[in-house]
Amino acid sequence: MTQKTDDWGLLLTAALDGDSRAYAHFLRAVTPVLRGVVRARGAALGEAGCEDVLQEVLLALHLKRHTWQVGTPVRPWLYAITRYKVVDAFRARGRRIDLPIEDFADVLPAEAGADPTQRADIDKMIGMLDPRAARLVRQVGVEGDSMAEAGAKLDMSEGAVRVALHRAFKQLAVLRKRHVE
Amino acid sequence: MKTDDLIRAMAGDTVVGPAPQMRLVWLLPALALGGVALWSRLGLRDDLALALQDPVSAMRIVLALALGGGALWAVVRLARPGAVVRLWPLGLVALVAIGLWLWAFALMPAEGRQMAIVGKTMVGCLTTIPLLAVLPTGIVLATLRQGAPVRPVLAGAVAGLAGGGLAAAVYALHCTEDSPLFYVTWYGTAILAVSAVSALVAGRLLRW
Q1: Mean pLDDT of the region B120-137
Q2: Judged by CB atoms within 8 Å, which residues 11-30 of A form the interface with B?
Q3: pTM
Q4: ipTM (interface predicted TM)
Q5: What domains appear along chain A, each with residue ranges and CATH number?
Q6: B169, B140, B171, B205: which is closest to B37 by C-alpha?
């Protein structure tokens, strides 16, 4: 476990330095653990519902990654964000849960199940972005375009694409907040 | 969108926000502005240099700065999820203040106590400190917003202690009340009021 956490720290350190491969690697490494936490708590939501909550957690993690202090353990930081967002997500869905931190230690990592893409919350929210931003998010996420490729398709400079993508994620968090309140 | 796709899109976004505490640098101009406003509207006390040499009077500023500083120190941690937050320094400042109050109370003859507590400038103190606290508290709340406080109400209360404490230190440059019976009572009341309002605002403002 310690070994794994150290890896997470190295990956996240590189990610904060702008290494997007390290960042993707970090996100893929923590996602099964976070999915396990969400599923252990939210069985009643079903697999698709849990995946929605997981994506909310990931979005928060993404937008708040600058609050991790390089050199400190990743785990307490990661779990604190996860607990906060999971409780928040369940409250938004009309359920109250308590999430003791000890529960995180023995949760089994979980892989994504069948593909519940059709009516996922994130798609609804992406649909509410301005069309250009929505296209950009899908292009980078689904098509796997680089910034340069996405920029060429949308007739934007690479720098403008970077800014637009970042704004799109911030906007998604705002939409999500409105969506649940 | 599949979680894998979301991850790929997020990895493409390499814009990382600044560390939350960077926003605290705005406190310096804010406090300077508060000092200038105080000086131009109310004036500094004439015997300021002399008062600063009197330990009992100087304790107003020492305690206010210690509270403000301790609260800022806690705020930086409250902005980071999972960070260990230590509030005991704030409790220590409160204890020293209460001790000082009791000491002054014991020293003061019974018939003078009420006058010393009420003082002559209670209203000015209770209005000016919160006014001076608005900007610094706002900056501290903005710092927390840039962070990710998992205990928003507590974070807001501590933000109010920071802003209120620093504001009280600025106000002390004008205030001529040297008795702990006055300043612990009314500075304390003003700071706690700022803290309460800040906590109330933070419950909504600091959600993320």
Answers
A1: 96
A2: 16, 18, 20-21, 23-24, 27-28
A3: 0.90
A4: 0.87
A5: 1-115 (1.10.1740.10), 117-181 (1.10.10.10)
A6: B171
